[in-house]
Design brief:
CATH superfamily: Glutaredoxin
Oligomer: single chain
Number of domains: 1
Order of helices and strands: EEEEHEHHHHEEH
Strand content: 5-15%
Helix content: 40-55%
Strand order of the largest sheet: 3-5-4-6-7
Length: about 210
Amino acid sequence: MKRLTALLTVIGLGPLVAGGLLIKDLVGSPRETAPWLFGSASARWTITEFADLECPYCKTYTPELKRWVSQQPDVNLQWHHLPLPFHGTAAIHQARLVECAGVLGGADAFWNAVDQVFRRTRSNGQGLPGRLELSGIDDHDLERCATSNIDVAMRIEQQLHEAQEKGINVTPTLLITDNTSGRTIKLEGPADGVTLLSAIDWLSHSARDSAVSQ
C-alpha cells in the first residue's frame, strides 16, 4: 500500500483538447453505465474497492475479492478508480482503458478489461505490454476512446476528487455500504473473507440497534 501525495496534476486533460474541440462519444452509446457493478444490483451490501490498476497489492487482491463476492448472494462489488500519482501515466491510461471498455461494451467488458490488465501489467508504473483483447470491441476504438473521450477522463477525475474528500489515499481501500440503512465502514488494505463478514455483521447489528433505539 502506498500513500496518495497528489491527485489531479496527473490527470492530463490537455491532450484531450484537439483544435479547440473536445472530442466526446466516439462510437455510440454504452449498453450500461458506470458505476460498474460485479454481482447482483439488488444486493443489500456493496463493497466499493478504491483501486489502482498499477498497484501490485490490487493486482493480487482484486481477483480474490471477486471470487469471494461471487459466492455471496447479497453482496456486490463496485469499482472506484484511484490511480496514484507515483504510478504516472500508466495508471491513468489503464484507468481510461477499462472505463472505455465499459462504455463500449458494458459491465462485462469492463470487468474483463480489469482482469486482463491485472494479469498482464508489470505494475508500479511500468505499464501494460500490448493491447487488451475484448470480444466485440475493436482495439483501435478502445485506444481512441482512452486518449480522446473527455467524459471518461472527467469521470476518473471525479472519482479521484471523491476519494480525496473521503480521506482515502491507500490502495486497495474498501468501503462497505449497507444499502438498507446507508451506513458504511472503511477497511484499508486487503481484507479476507472473515474480515469482510465481520464488517458486514457489525453494520447489520448497528442498523438493528439504531432501529430499536428510535
